[in-house]
């Protein structure tokens, strides 16, 4: 018996010894595996935290005008931009030991396992905030062991490489609150119409309950369930010392108002402009489409909400609903090229084609100011004269004869000045000037003014036979308005990534590409289209809208068989308007021919309402203002029935006096004015 007992004892010792060594080996293996996992996690480094977020677009005064929309609303808010009550409510209900564990709450896991065993079903979750964040960032929400292993590994990487506040911020910005709202900021905007930073305790505790089951606990789905969940959260916040019992009771009783609308659904502003901005992000800033759509960018634009509203309003009011004609408008600040308003068509829903930037249309006579600026460079002055008469041009190089015509075949059948030719839009004067300068001059001048479209080197180029874009014509006229400074059409002033880091910011430029004196002389000539003193064989082309204008403007209208234009400016704003049919159908109705001018005039007046009335400021030197007889361009005498103050590049002003109206004893006063006694526009307009 003793032998058997002794044998049994030794056998038991061997078994325990084997178990002990096996346990040691197993423990060593576990330690090695854990060490390997931790080492591998450290080698991989911090996982990226970027998640798809909506890109936001802002107007020039910082108001939200739109966002990229992929069916989800995401906005990244820093932890300090989220209500402390929402932070505390989330920790209290989701992971009260968040700041004390390293990614896994083992005590909570054990409790969940016991609860599940007792219920013979999965009744309690044990995922920490870090685990949930890992799932939101990197993984599909399936229920497989592979997913759980991956989730655990990502959890380790997050805890090893990021602070608790980084993890908490990320979680609050990625958790789903239902109705397409991802993150606290989007949810706050959707449910309460306010920023996450401004949530009250009652609102925060209500919001914190939704992620457990958005379809079940959303107050828009079931207010009863939402209130019950809110009560649980307030109790948990009280137990964890975040609030007092009195505060919890007051929050539970507070009546909440829910908006249930995504803010940007109300804000569909300037769709053509926003398309142009997205195109600029892609082609000018070279951002890829995914970054633009889902990168959480903040794009600060040049759009003026006031001017955009005015543009859309005037197009709607001035164009007959029954007409199929299309309209494009670009308004620009001439000092910096900032696009303040843009309309690319009458109805974006029907046609998103942006005629303001994409269409190439014949500019007609609106090209003439560029031609005449080149003429000033080659010795012309506002008083230079040529004959206006029915003319056929013959060419020695074998080209066919060319016979341009004036509107309604009206001609002066005599000499007219450059200033008057521009004001009444005489085509014969323009073609003669073009051919005199050489057909290559206007082509090169157009490039200098920023026109990128191909210009045909032909006689008809002087009458706008080569296509241009509306936005580039607005930019070209900006050079006159700002005294010759280079500008380029600008839609974006700044872009920030989702961390708030500036990745693009517009830099100002001051390069002069036009002579300031000649640019000012051109501006003064362009005021002539509104001045009846320059009426001749035809009325000035701006006569139909001049009575509606209440401040100094310069501009030029233009028309072809299929296109109608009006481009003009004040010192503060340049606007180009085009009207026509997409298919190149002729514009036959007189009312449709007037749309561009009417829209331009009414828009400029409304857009500038409330702004100071400014005159065009001459350069410090280089120009001289003298009174001339507008019919012949010679210095006016006291006997001339019409005298008009006209500006010239210094040294080119006329020296010959008008003798056509001299009476016996009539004098020839020295009427030069380098510094007028009062602003020029007060002498030009009757209301001055």
Write a concise synopsis of the structure shown.
Residues 62-237 form the Glycosyl transferase family domain. The protein is α+β, with helices and mostly antiparallel strands.
Q: Considering DSSP H and I runs of 4 or more, what fraction of the residues is helical?
A: 25-40%
Query: Low-confidence spans: pLDDT under 50, at least 5 residues?
Result: 672-688
Distance between the termini: 134 Å
Strand content: 5-15%
* Backbone shape: elongated
- Give a count of the beta strands, DSSP E runs of length 2 or more: 17
CATH superfamily of the largest domain: DD-peptidase/beta-lactamase superfamily
Continuous helix count:
24
Largest sheet: 5 strands, mixed
CATH topological fold name of the largest domain: Beta-lactamase
CATH architecture of the largest domain: 3-Layer(aba) Sandwich
Mean pLDDT: 87
Question: What structural class should be given to the helix and strand makeup?
Answer: alpha+beta
Total individual domains: 4
CATH class of the largest domain: Alpha Beta
Please state how the strands of the largest beta sheet are arranged side by side. 2-1-5-10-11
Q: What is the rounded Rg?
A: 38 Å
Organism: Neobacillus paridis
Subcellular location: Cell membrane
Protein name: PBP1A family penicillin-binding protein
Keywords: Carboxypeptidase, Cell membrane, Cell shape, Cell wall biogenesis/degradation, Glycosyltransferase, Hydrolase, Membrane, Multifunctional enzyme, Peptidoglycan synthesis, Protease, Transferase, Transmembrane, Transmembrane helix
């Amino acid at each position: 018996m003793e032998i058997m007992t002794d044998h049994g004892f030794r056998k038991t010792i061997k078994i325990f010894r084997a178990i002990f060594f096996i346990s040691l080996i197993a423990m060593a293996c576990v330690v090695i595996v854990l060490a390997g996992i931790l080492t591998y996690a450290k080698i991989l480094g911090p996982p990226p935290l970027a998640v798809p977020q909506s890109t936001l677009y802002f107007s020039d005064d910082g108001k939200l005008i739109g966002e990229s929309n992929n069916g989800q609303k995401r906005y990244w808010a820093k932890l300090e931009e989220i209500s402390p009550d929402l932070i505390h409510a989330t920790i209290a209900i989701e992971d009260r030991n968040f700041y004390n564990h390293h990614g896994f709450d083992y005590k909570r896991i054990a409790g969940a396992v016991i609860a599940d065993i007792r219920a013979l079903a999965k009744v309690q979750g044990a995922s920490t905030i870090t685990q949930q964040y890992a799932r939101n960032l990197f993984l599909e929400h399936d229920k497989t062991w592979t997913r759980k292993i991956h989730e655990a590994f990502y959890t380790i990487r997050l805890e090893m490489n990021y602070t608790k506040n980084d993890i908490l911020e990320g979680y609050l910005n990625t958790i789903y609150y239902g109705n397409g709202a991802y993150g606290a900021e989007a949810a706050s905007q959707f449910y309460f119409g306010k920023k996450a930073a401004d949530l009250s305790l009652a609102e925060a505790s209500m919001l914190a309950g939704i992620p457990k089951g958005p379809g079940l606990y959303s107050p828009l789905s079931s207010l009863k369930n939402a209130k019950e969940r809110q009560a649980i959260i307030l109790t948990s916040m009280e137990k964890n010392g975040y609030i007092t019992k009195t505060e919890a009771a007051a929050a539970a009783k507070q009546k909440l108002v829910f908006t249930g609308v995504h803010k940007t659904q109300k804000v569909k502003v300037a769709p053509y402009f926003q398309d142009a901005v997205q195109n600029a992000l892609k082609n000018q800033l070279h951002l890829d489409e995914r970054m633009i759509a889902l990168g959480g960018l903040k794009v600060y634009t040049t759009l003026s909400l006031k001017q955009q509203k005015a543009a859309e309003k005037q197009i709607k009011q001035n164009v007959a609903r029954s007409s199929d004609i299309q309209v494009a408008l670009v308004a620009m600040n001439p000092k910096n090229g900032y696009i303040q308003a843009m309309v690319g068509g009458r109805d974006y829903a029907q046609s998103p084609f942006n005629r303001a930037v994409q269409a190439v249309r014949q500019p007609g006579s609106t090209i003439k100011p560029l031609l005449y600026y080149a003429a000033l460079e080659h010795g012309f002055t506002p008083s230079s004269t040529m004959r206006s008469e029915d003319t056929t041009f013959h060419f020695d190089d074998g080209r066919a004869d060319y016979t341009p015509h004036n509107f309604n075949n009206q001609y002066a059948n005599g000499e007219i000045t450059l200033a008057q030719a521009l004001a009444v839009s005489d085509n014969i004067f323009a073609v003669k000037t073009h051919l005199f300068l050489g057909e290559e001059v206007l082509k090169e001048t157009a490039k200098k003014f920023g026109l990128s479209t191909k210009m045909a080197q032909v006689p008809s180029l002087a009458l706008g036979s080569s296509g241009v874009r509306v936005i580039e014509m607005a930019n070209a006229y900006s050079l006159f308005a700002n005294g010759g400074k280079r500008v380029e059409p600008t839609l974006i002033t700044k872009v920030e990534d989702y961390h708030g880091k500036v990745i693009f910011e517009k830099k100002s430029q001051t390069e002069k590409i036009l002579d300031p004196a000649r640019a000012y002389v051109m501006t003064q000539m362009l005021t002539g289209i509104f001045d009846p003193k320059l009426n001749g064989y035809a009325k000035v082309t701006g006569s139909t809208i001049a009575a509606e204008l209440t401040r100094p403007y310069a501009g030029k209208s233009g028309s072809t068989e299929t296109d109608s234009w009006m481009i003009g400016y004040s010192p503060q704003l340049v606007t180009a308007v085009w009207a026509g049919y997409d298919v190149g159908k002729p514009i036959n109705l007189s009312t449709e021919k007037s749309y561009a001018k009417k829209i331009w005039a009414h828009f400029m007046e409304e857009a500038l309402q409330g702004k100071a009335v400014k005159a065009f400021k001459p350069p410090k030197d280089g120009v001289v203002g003298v009174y001339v007889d507008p019919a012949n361009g010679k210095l006016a005498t006291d006997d001339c029935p019409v005298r008009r103050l006209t500006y010239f590049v210094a040294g080119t002003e006329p020296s010959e006096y008008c003798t056509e109206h001299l009476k016996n004893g009539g004098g020839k006063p020295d009427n030069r004015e380098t510094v007028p006694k009062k602003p020029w526009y007060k002498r030009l307009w009757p209301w001055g």
